[in-house]
Specification:
Length: 312
């Protein structure tokens, strides 16, 4: 018993910085961009420090994903879409949601040649090597479209080159990149999942349940300060965009202000609850159930994952 108390004391001391603040490493799921503006704002405006946290924002890189960073214990929290979190929980990785920023699906399916994607049976569809497209795969299975999925690091470029019939896109990112190239798809070639029976929340902040149990107080302070950062961004979009561009330049990201502005505007729109129109920053039990049911029906999970499993 005495040894356990000593170990707990050592762990608690190593979690503190010299200034008495609790160290907390956050690894967003992708490179620096407006998708993470609220966390940048919380850091730059001192919201994390005010909450007694010494936060490091550690972006992933090509050879190490954000999820790998938290699984290896090098970070306490990351962002994940709800469907990916459900898939991981089904695989035995216990994850908990401490903040939910997305309230709507940004997922889009864009086809070529004026064809409605919802009628494009057995078409070749470009996608990423990631879990963001799971709802699209569920839709294709449910409707019998039987798409041939082609995974690529940059599906946008291959789509422009004519390598496939359609591509998966996020409304806040790849869609605008296509518009920037001069490609303006007709309305009937765009399938927005949020406008059909597939509207499922996406990005939230997730932790391993074991890490949350060890740092519950710090996790809740991080979530509240992050929420405060996002609320500030919604009220000060131009100043927030300035902060985003500083991060883009610092991390040498090939982007431009027009793209980041479009992304920020769309991210903020997606944060509004489809029923109340408010920013609640919470998982919705009905959307968890919908995502779990769709994934179970399509064979991507072997058992239902419940709301209670995901919320501490």
């Amino acid at each position: 018993m005495y040894a356990k108390r000593i170990l707990a004391l050592i762990l608690s001391l190593t979690a503190l910085t010299a200034g008495g603040q609790t160290r907390f490493v956050f690894s967003p799921q992708w490179t620096a961009q407006a998708q993470f503006a609220g966390y940048y704002a919380a850091y730059e405006l001192g919201f994390y420090k005010q909450a007694g946290l010494d936060v490091e924002i550690r972006h992933p890189f090509a050879t190490k994903q954000a999820l790998d960073i938290i699984l290896s214990g090098q970070a306490q929290a990351t962002t994940l879409p709800l469907t990916e979190a459900i898939r991981l929980v089904n695989q035995g990785k216990s994850l908990v949601n401490i903040l939910q920023t997305s309230m709507n699906s940004s997922l889009m399916l864009i086809s070529r040649f004026g064809v409605d994607p919802a009628t494009m049976k057995k078409g070749k569809v470009l996608t990423w090597r990631a879990g963001h497209d799971l709802i699209a795969r569920c839709m294709a299975k449910r409707t019998g479209l039987d798409y041939e999925w082609i995974e690529a690091a940059t599906p946008r470029n291959l789509f422009i080159a004519g390598a496939a019939d359609a591509t998966i896109a996020m409304s806040y990112n790849e869609y605008f990149q296509l518009l920037q190239t001069g490609l303006v798809p007709p309305g009937n070639t765009i399938y927005r999942f949020s406008e059909h029976d597939y509207n499922v929340q996406e990005d939230g902040v997730w932790m391993l349940a074991t890490d949350y149990a060890k740092q519950k107080d710090a996790a809740e302070r991080f979530a509240e300060a992050s929420r405060k950062g996002w609320e500030w961004v919604a009220d000060h979009p131009e100043e927030a965009l300035d902060i985003v561009m500083e991060y883009v330049r610092k991390h040498k990201i090939h982007s431009n202000r027009a793209l980041q502005q479009f992304m920020l505007e769309e991210i903020l729109r997606l944060q509004l609850d489809p029923d109340s129109g408010e920013r609640t920053f919470q998982l919705r039990p009905d959307m968890v159930r919908k995502a779990s049911d769709l994934m179970l029906e399509s064979g991507f999970v072997k058992r239902p994952v419940t709301y209670k499993e995901l919320v501490p």
